[in-house]
Amino acid sequence: MDTAFIETSKAALSVVGIGESQVLDGALRFGSKAFPIQISQRTAVSRLDNFDPENLPLFSYIEIAEERDYDALTETWIIEETEFLIEPIGYLLKVLGKMWETIEMGFWGTFISVMISLPLGILSSRNYTPNKLIYVIARGWLSFHRAMPELIIALFLVLMYGFGPIAGVLALAIHTSGVLGKFFADEIENAPPGPQTALAASGANAMKVLRFAVFPHVLPAWIAYVQYIFERNIRTATVLGIVGAGGIGTELKGRWDLFDYGHVATILLVIFVTVVVLEMFSQKLRNKTL
Questions:
Q1: 74 φ, ψ to 5°?
Q2: What pTM was estimated for this model as a whole?
Q3: Distance CA 167, CA 157 (A)
Q4: pLDDT for the residue numbered 39
């Protein structure tokens, strides 16, 4: 923390012209290369399979560029012409596709998480677990899932399933099932006992008490928890791509390693807009359900 304070102070002083700062230099270096953002895509025609010049993508065109190479044997310059396919919004469309893949990862990770956490949440609630042993096992299993960060889980799953979104989806599902399961169990335990006692006294079994006395009370809170986990999973899925677990994070890591900061800025902008839109949508949905 001492280093962070010192470097931040140097950056603040450097802004007003006092001294130099590696923090400010790094920020300026990124900013100078990040804008304008890159939304177009330029691909050599020779690298495209089954290329049809008569059937180009929408808004695309062919550009011919001259490249000069020096031939040491003949001591002359050789001019070669190379055809490139220029797609004005090609890279933006690619990033949007990766972002959609990330949203799908968040959705399926949340869906599987709910399927795992719902039964475990019921079994780990004190008033509805069949016995003490099952309660301890269910609580311990949920705690184990919560204790394993998604990034660590993804590292192991990439070794098992290979690179791609499957590892990311399962990593999200495993960790967040522990979080959701605890939320579900706590809500069941904190449900008002009056309706449950009255229904049980009338001869209803535990499942009917859950269905008619507990679920109507806890359902709004459960929906809010699931919405939060879904938003969180989308944000986390962007990070999982760094270890090869699919999504837009893989593209972000690749462009960052190549110092393509203009492409990085495009990716970050798409992530930001997506998160804001999802937050607005979730807020409207939450207002209707609560």
A1: -95, -5
A2: 0.79
A3: 5
A4: 75
pLDDT higher than 70, residue 196: yes
Q: Which fold has domain 91-289?
A: MetI-like fold (1.10.3720)
Phi-psi region of 40 (alpha: psi -120 to 50; beta: other; left: phi over 0): beta
Q: What is the pLDDT of residues 135-158, one digit of tens each?
A: 899 888 989 988 888 888 888 888
Q: Which residue has the tokens 């009917």?
A: 208
**In the chain, where are the structural domains located?**
41-88, 91-289
Q: How far apart are CA 182 and CA 229, in angstroms?
A: 13
Select from 239, 267, 271, 241 the least CA-distant residue to 34.
267
- Sequence-ordered alpha helix ranges (H) in the chain: 2-15, 22-34, 90-123, 132-147, 150-161, 165-189, 193-201, 206-209, 215-240, 248-257, 261-289
CA 232 to chain centre: 8
pLDDT, tens digit (0-9, with 9 covering 90-100), for 44-57 = 766 777 776 777 77
Q: How far apart are CA 30 and CA 27, in angstroms?
A: 5
Q: Angle at Cα 141 formed by Cα 136 and Cα 146, nearest 5°?
A: 125
pLDDT of residue 172: 92
